[in-house]
From TrEMBL:
<dbReference type="GO" id="GO:0004300">
    <property type="term" value="F:enoyl-CoA hydratase activity"/>
</dbReference>
<dbReference type="InterPro" id="IPR032259">
    <property type="entry name" value="HIBYL-CoA-H"/>
</dbReference>
<dbReference type="Pfam" id="PF16113">
    <property type="entry name" value="ECH_2"/>
</dbReference>
<protein>
    <recommendedName>
        <fullName>3-hydroxyisobutyryl-CoA hydrolase</fullName>
        <ecNumber>3.1.2.4</ecNumber>
    </recommendedName>
</protein>
<keyword id="KW-0456">Lyase</keyword>
<feature type="domain" description="Enoyl-CoA hydratase/isomerase">
    <location>
        <begin position="16"/>
        <end position="337"/>
    </location>
</feature>
<keyword id="KW-0378">Hydrolase</keyword>
<dbReference type="InterPro" id="IPR045004">
    <property type="entry name" value="ECH_dom"/>
</dbReference>
<dbReference type="InterPro" id="IPR029045">
    <property type="entry name" value="ClpP/crotonase-like_dom_sf"/>
</dbReference>
């Protein structure tokens, strides 16, 4: 019996429909899914019969990330799996620059690679159970897929907090931060697709199905402590401030410090430098920087160790190398920001 396709494409009226179809894997993006999606977007971009693209996920998640286990296995078996990330980043850029409305209907988890195929589109409609996170520092990687462009532009220092602590943000926080553009009940998603299929005005089609204002769950209340703690200094400095926090935010600070300390020290230092650099970069330069960092990390130790601990052996006990922030070599960090030996990232 033939297995279900990992990704489905359809047309409905004026809409090109994409359905991520790996529900058991929380719709994790495989290389084939990336390439097929890029191919269809290129066709629909130039097709006058298509006025809008709609992307959604089957099951209980939109997309929980890229298929990092496949990248792990490819890297262990042979050359660096940099080609997967290069083509994924090109897809992210194609979405950012897509000339027609691109509507992501997000319910459940949107993490890692899922952010790259949703948050760069023109319309990001989040349902009540949507949860955003960039958890890559926990597997020895870094916030990629152009997410640094978003994280660097979140209110105050909340993007840096989200990057270092791999914080999970609900729908209200995502609206507050600019990750989501609209809120609607998941029960309305089918009707939204029908409305979008009828014309090219996505704002008008969405309007009848949207919620009113949705308050942030955590970020507004935490704005001041996040700004004070994450605004300047090294990762060690940020951790010291978290350790010293007193008053009503002390429990949050203790949890956040513990979350950060569980991450790869190398990844934390890279992410801090990356997000701060992204504040002065445009999107294409952010995605170019992603490729530079990924090319170096994929030749290192912590990504493979992080994936092993989280997804292969599942012992949740990664042995980072180095395993302390004080042992991270600044020269090694700087090397992640230079042009790779095989040349810089280019867009078609």
């Amino acid at each position: 019996m033939a297995s279900e396709p990992e990704i489905l494409f359809d047309r409905k009226g004026r809409a090109g429909l994409v359905t991520l179809n790996r529900p058991k894997a929380l719709n994790a993006l495989s290389y084939d899914m990336v390439m097929l999606m890029a191919e269809h977007l290129a066709i629909w971009r130039d097709d006058p019969a298509i006025g809008v693209v709609v992307v959604r996920g089957a099951g209980r998640a939109f997309c929980a990330g890229g298929d990092v286990r496949a990248a792990y296995e490819a890297g262990r078996a042979g050359p660096s799996p940099a080609a997967f990330f290069r083509d994924e980043y090109r897809l992210n850029a194609a979405i950012k620059h897509f000339p027609k409305p691109y509507v992501a209907l997000v319910d459940g988890f949107v993490m890692g690679g899922g952010v790259g195929i949703s948050a760069h589109g023109s319309h990001r409609v989040f349902a009540e159970n949507a949860v955003f996170s960039m958890p890559e520092t926990g597997i020895g990687f870094f916030p990629d897929v152009g997410s640094s462009y978003l994280l660097a532009r979140m209110p105050g220092e909340s993007g840096l907090y989200a990057a270092l602590a791999a914080a999970r943000l609900g729908r209200g926080d995502c609206l507050h931060a600019g990750i989501a553009t609209h809120a609607a009940p998941a029960a309305n998603f089918d009707a939204i697709v029908d409305a979008l299929a009828e014309g090219d005005d996505a704002d008008r089609a969405l309007a009848p199905f949207l919620h009113g204002p949705v308050a942030p769950e955590t970020l507004r209340e935490l704005n001041d402590p996040i700004a004070a703690i994450f605004g300047t200094g090294t990762v060690e400095t940020i951790l010291s401030r978290l350790d010293e926090a007193e008053g009503p935010h002390a429990p949050w600070a203790e949890r956040t410090a513990a979350d950060i300390r569980a991450k790869s020290p190398t990844s934390l230092v890279i992410a801090l430098k990356q997000i701060r650099a992204a504040r002065t970069l445009d999107f294409d330069d952010c995605i170019r920087l992603d490729y530079r960092i990924a090319s170096q990390i994929l030749d290192g130790h912590d990504f493979y160790e992080g994936v092993r601990a989280a997804l292969v052996d599942k012992d949740k006990a990664p042995r980072w190398r180095p395993d302390t922030l004080s042992a991270v070599d600044p020269r090694v960090i700087e090397a992640h920001f230079g042009v790779p030996s095989d040349g810089d990232f280019t867009l078609p």
